Amino acid sequence: MSMLNQGTTDQLPGADANPSGPVAPAPVKLGKPRRRWVRNRSTLIGGLIVGIIILVALVSLFWTPHFYDEQDLNRSLLPPFWMDGADPGYPLGTDLNGRDLLSRLMVGAQASLFVGVASVLVGGVIGMVLGLVAGFFGGWWEAIIMRLVDIQLSLPGVLLAIAVLAAIGKGLLNVVLVLGFVSWVQYARIVRGSTLAVKSQEYVLGARAIGARNWRLILRHIMPNILPPLMVVATINVSSNILSEAALSYLGVGVNISTVTWGGMLNEGKTLFDVSWWNAVWPGLAILIVVFGINLLGDGLSDGKM
Amino acid sequence: MGKLILQRLWQSALVLLAVSILSFLLIFLTGDPVAALVPLNARQEDYDNIRQQYGLDQPIPVQYVQFVIKAFQGNMGESFRYHTDALSLVLGRLPNTFLLAAVSLALSILISLPVGIMAARSKGRIFDVIASFFALLAISIPSFWLGVILIIVFAGTLRWLPASGSGSWQQIIMPAVTISAFSIGFLIRLIRRSVADTLQQQYVVTARSKGLAERVIAWRHVLRNSAIPIVTVLGLQFGALLGGSVVVETVFAWPGVGWLMIQSIEARDLPVIRAAVLILAIFIVLINLAVDIIYSWLDPRIKLQPGKGAGA
User: Fold this and answer.
1) What number of other Cβ atoms are within 10 A of residue B290's Cβ?
2) Of all residues in chain B, what percent carry a pLDDT higher than 90?
3) Core-most of A69, A203, B122, B151, by most CB within 10 Å?
4) Is B142 close to A284, i.e. CB distance below 8 A?
5) Is residue A260 part of a domain?
6) Which long-range contacts (CB under 8 A, 24 or more apart) does A227-233 make?
7) What is the domain range of residue A173?
8) Half-sphere exposure in the Cβ direction for A257 (13 Å, CA)
9) Interchain proximity A1–B247, CB inside 8 Å
């Protein structure tokens, strides 16, 4: 699940067989033309889906068909447009409080994307710094950081996220921080591996020989080389963190009810599904579409770059 | 190999130490641990009593040591809600969680193994395209939502299966399908890649060119060699399934540790939350340890580099 989902979404143990060893740059493989076309198509369709969702989130900042929190109990649980008793002004129906589901779905895209991207940034920055330190400086730093990595990898991420959120309380920022702290390990491993591989390259040794300082070596010579593999993991991690946020909010330990999220909508809709299936179906479908799009994009990118 | 196992044991001990510190600190994350430990309607003297009773007036390292000693004695505090031992509450629910995880794992293997192998052998053709699409869909679907949809369709509209509870084999079908969906997709993708990589190895090409039957190649050369990464991940998936059960058990009101934990969160029943986290984490760590040991036994190459663990 996601992270929650399945926790595990964020721990893909099979991702690399030799996590501790340096990652050698893979030779570019040219597959059969047909395979490449399939891959390009993945990137294209995935990118298109993600682009549309981003656009919807942006539009919802300025315009939604109705105000997302406008309640009217006379309109409670209106069905979607093709069913009897529907109101064409509310094409996807309404929730228990008579709020327009289409507008809420549009606004919910903001929180999902925000949590997905922000938590990856948090985890990415922590992981990148620790991975660089471990790979570049080695020694005790490396020993301590890699031990931390081993420990965190063995911990059930979802479980920890739920327990910690239950203790520190709900909130968008808390979810971002917790998901970020749960996922830094993957970045640390990749960054360390790539740093080890790049560090001994001639151009880095050359730069060091002409007197470049450590931070310059890291910023100008090492960082640009480790960004491509990092981007692929980050992309996939955005989708797993979106799933995790949804599961946390569904369980009632994620984001506050005042913030519209798809997981939160599902939480409200879950008791209503015998009378109004649409309250349970639309938010989950929205999550599925955006996560599918991001995973498709990640697949396409990883075949191109890794 | 003995050295490797020792190293793994040491690492697992470290992980358990980290888990125990985390679950110990959980009550401090709530702000005032006393407020978290007393019921919402507590009076001032209750506060003072609890503070003394739990030793919360002592330095934090001392409290931690006491917490660990008590935990080893099987004392994880008393549930606020049930007024019984928190640890036995959690242990009582454990068999249900294990049953669900085991059925889900079996389901994952039964589906993903043949589909993954078939997809690898027909790479690029129609079966592969369809299988890959559904595998991607399976890892993208929110599990709790899949559960809700299954309930709407099979319990609501069709009335084929019970919507919740436990006790009969019909009741385990929907939760097991829901939990294993992600694993199935994940494993199909892994198996497909692993088998496809093996199929390109020179020894397979050689076996084929010397005229061995496809069946012999498949069993003797391909499956054996792709088995190692697959077995590792299978073991790790069991841990993941245990963790994922927290969400799915809640959807189906499956009386396992996960549902107990979510109910305890709603009731602010911290001793039970702490016991549930600790017990689930201990089992996940132990399973990972077992997988690592089995892995090193399966793959003799691992022995040569004890510093670089496989499942790390």
Assistant:
1) 14
2) 12
3) B151
4) yes
5) yes
6) A228/A305, A228/A306, A229/A23, A229/A190, A229/A194, A229/A305, A229/A306, A230/A124, A230/A128, A230/A187, A230/A190, A230/A191, A230/A194, A231/A301, A231/A305, A232/A298, A232/A301, A232/A302, A232/A305, A232/A306, A233/A186, A233/A187, A233/A190
7) 49-55+107-305
8) 5
9) yes
Spans of chain A, pLDDT less than 50: 1-29, 305-306
Task: For residue A134, give both structure tokens.
Answer: 């471990």
Cα A109 from chain centroid?
Answer: 13
SS3 A89: coil
Of B15, B148, B239, the CB nearest to A151: B15
Residue in chain A lying closest to B287 (CA): A154
Q: In this structure, is residue A131 part of a structural domain?
A: yes
Examine residue A259 and state whether it is found in any structural domain, yes or no.
yes
Position B211 scores a pLDDT of 81
CATH code of the domain containing A179: 1.10.3720.10
Per-residue confidence at B299, pLDDT binned at 50, 70, 90?
low
Query: Residues A262, A53: contact at Cβ < 8 Å?
Result: no
The answer to whether residue A208 is domain-embedded is yes
How many domains does chain A contain in total?
A: 1
Burial grade of A180 (CB within 10 A; 0-12, 13-18, 19 or more): buried
The full set of domains in chain B, from first to last, is: 92-298 (1.10.3720.10)
